[in-house]
Amino acid sequence: MDSAWIFQHSFIDGQWLKGEGEFAVTNPADGSEIVRASRVSPSQVEQAITSAQRAFKGLKTTTAEQRSEVLYRWYELIMKHQHSLAELMTLEQGKPLAESQGEVAYGAGFVKWFAEQAKRSYGEIIPASKPEHRISVIKQGVGVVAGITPWNFPIAMITRKVAPAYAAGCSFVLKPSEHTPLCALALAHLAHQAGFPRGAFNVLLSDDAKAVGEQLTASETVRKFTFTGSTQVGSQLLKQCASTIKRTSMELGGNAPLLVFASADLDKAADGIIASKFRNAGQTCVCVNRVLADERIADKLLAKLQQRVAKLKVGPGTEEGVNIGPLIYPQAKTKVNELIDSALQEGATLVGERQSLEGNFVAPVLLSNVTSEMRISREEIFGPVLTVATFKDERQALQQANDTPYGLAAYFYSQDVAQIHRVAETLEYGMVGINEGLISNPVAPFGGVKQSGLGREGGHQGLEEYLEEKYLCLNLD
User: Where along the chain is the active site annotated (predicted)?
Assistant: First the structure.
């Protein structure tokens, strides 16, 4: 890994600023220390907010075309350095290098998309009820945006927030995960090269997300707050944002079901399940958390899944042919093993082997005879564990699928056209994959319902999250 891509200080007002104290950024594959990052101070957080406010005032005078050109340059720089960014991601996050390469391109896709959408923040002309009036609506950037992003997608989670904010004419103060801050700093470095004004994109390093979050949410200068993470933390951040009436976007926890109906192509269903479940070692908010299979085809599906799971290779993301890298830290492995143990104690059946691996690695596990009452069906697993339950009919399948406070993503496989329409409309989720296990796309709105969050990222809807509407009434008399 080229050390030129490893930064250790916060990026504030276009400068690298050393903080107060340090914390270690480690490689989850072997626990080795990559760098000691400097912890941002409260005064530096305030400095970032102030610089962002100054940058926002300048951005208000730029044209959509100018902001679009800057975003295009950022996109081109990200893609130019795709391999280096992917190596950096695998180093600090652990996912296989091929997945990291894919995420860099996926994350860059949001920058490209919003470079295009920047020029499409259209207003409207409204027919007036009085002849002397002319009524119009214009859209303007909401103001300074603050965001907290997670470790599981350390580039894409950032670009899909920062790119639409900049496209709308907003500045950004980012607190990335303390486990994966290096990708965020690399993105800020490239954004600065692309022409982001000083203060338009600030990155704050800290292993005390609670303290930084409290300062960002309490600021009256920050007019919008965006967060990706757990429902528990998101709920607390919403409470903190209420005191200053901020706009918010929250992409929170999930418990994604994947239903396999009797008419499904079982090979395609098995392939889709494996692709969705084991991407990033199962550490995604939209990966399949529970498979629900028609009892008439469940055994056939299990056999196909067992064959595919047995072929998955676990190891450091830098090794050739690895499908599953390490979990992000030891506590994550502990939780996953606890969920497996509790499922087996509650009556689930282990299909195939359960290997014990050292470090943060967890070998893929397949469980059958799982029920909706089990803990493993109620909680987000966030690990390479695939559970299979059965249903008798469509009604029961939908009841089981919707029996959760979460509503982020759901999937199902069916070749019955009428059933496809019924099920898609009945599933209580913000996103539904139909005969497809990988649904994330910059051109489509990403987000959930119920306790899975508020707002959408991506699509034309993603730009609207950073715009305010202003009604203008002109009297011609």
Answer: 251
In a domain, 447, yes or no: no
Identify the pLDDT of residue 3: 84
Q: Are residues 376 and 457 in the same domain?
A: no
Q: Do residues 183 and 244 both lie within one domain?
A: yes
Pairing of strands 247-251, 133-141: unpaired
Count of all residues that appear for the chain in the document:
477
The pLDDT of 400-428, averaged and rounded, is 98
Rounded Cα distance between 46 and 44, Å, is 5
Please determine, for residue 383, whether its predicted confidence score (pLDDT) is greater than 80: yes
Q: Is 399 helix (H, G, I), strand (E, B) or coil?
A: helix
Sign of CA dihedral 424, 425, 428, 430: positive
**Domain assignment of residue 120, given as a range:** 3-252+452-474
* Total number of domains constituting the chain: 2
Residues 427 and 368 in one domain: yes
Q: What tens digit of pLDDT does each residue of 24-83 get?
A: 999 999 999 999 999 999 999 999 999 999 999 999 999 999 999 999 999 999 999 999
Cβ neighbours of residue 3 under 8 Å, at least 6 residues apart? none
DSSP 119: G
Q: Could you read off the pLDDT of 66-78 as tens digits, one per residue?
A: 999 999 999 999 9
The per-residue pLDDT for 2 is 79
**Whether 178 and 46 share a structural domain:** yes
Is there a domain that residue 157 lies in? yes
Confidence class for position 362, pLDDT limits 50, 70, 90: very high
Q: Do residues 158 and 207 touch, judged by C-beta distance below 8 A?
A: no
CATH code of the domain covering residue 111: 3.40.605.10
Predicted confidence at residue 337, as pLDDT, reads: 97
Residues that are catalytic: 251
